[in-house]
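pasting for ref
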Amino acid sequence: MISTIQQIILFLGTLVGGITDTKTGYIYDWITIPMIILGLILNILQIQLFNLVSGGIIFLTLLIGYKLGKIGGGDVKIFTSIALLNPFNKIDFLITLFFFATISSMVFYSIYYLIKYYKKGIIFEREKKGIYNAIILGTILFFYLIIMNNLRMAQLHTILILSIPIITGLIYFALQKGIKEEFFEKKILIKNLEEDEIVGEKNNKIIKKLLNGKVLLGKKEIAYLKKQKIKSIFVLRNLPKFGPFIFIGTIIAIIWPELFLIFFV
């Protein structure tokens, strides 16, 4: 009974989170905090120690990514709530969910921004370093997959499935500098900055020195920039929304929690 309740909360929570993330770019606290509280209550009622431990580990790990400006605060809370509401109290569910959420988003956004960048006009001169790095990384991954297949660590159909997100991801990796500059990096007036803005790379040396390497803007950093008479700053806006793909991963994991293991073990 409690397992069914956990599944329903997960379904509704990730569905609403995916919708709000798509529309506004936020997964709000009024979605994630109740999920976390309910998850904790249900864990205690069932003595689900794995869920409690995995929820704590995921929260602390993603919190580091948040501080480094690699993931949003809403994503940290939604993944923590998912771990606490894991209806199977096993790692299979989490691996399947995270894997398919990541893979589906990687494939979609790589193709989406490649098409947009192509239509706008790819500046290959700007992408030389990225293309070179992508070729190196692609070569390493290619030989790694061959070794996995030869050692029977992965079957051929698994490698073929993996090759799709790998290829699309490498294309995005090769062109990420231009994609970031063309679609994400925006010059925003200091008065219009919001908390948790991610600092862009286009900022001049003065701003970079003032921020002392910080990539995430909090109230303290914004107030300091205002005090230093900085008028505007480049930040990353309209970043890819991960919420809808968390929902996709949740549905797959609820229906077939061992799917990842069938492919890769």
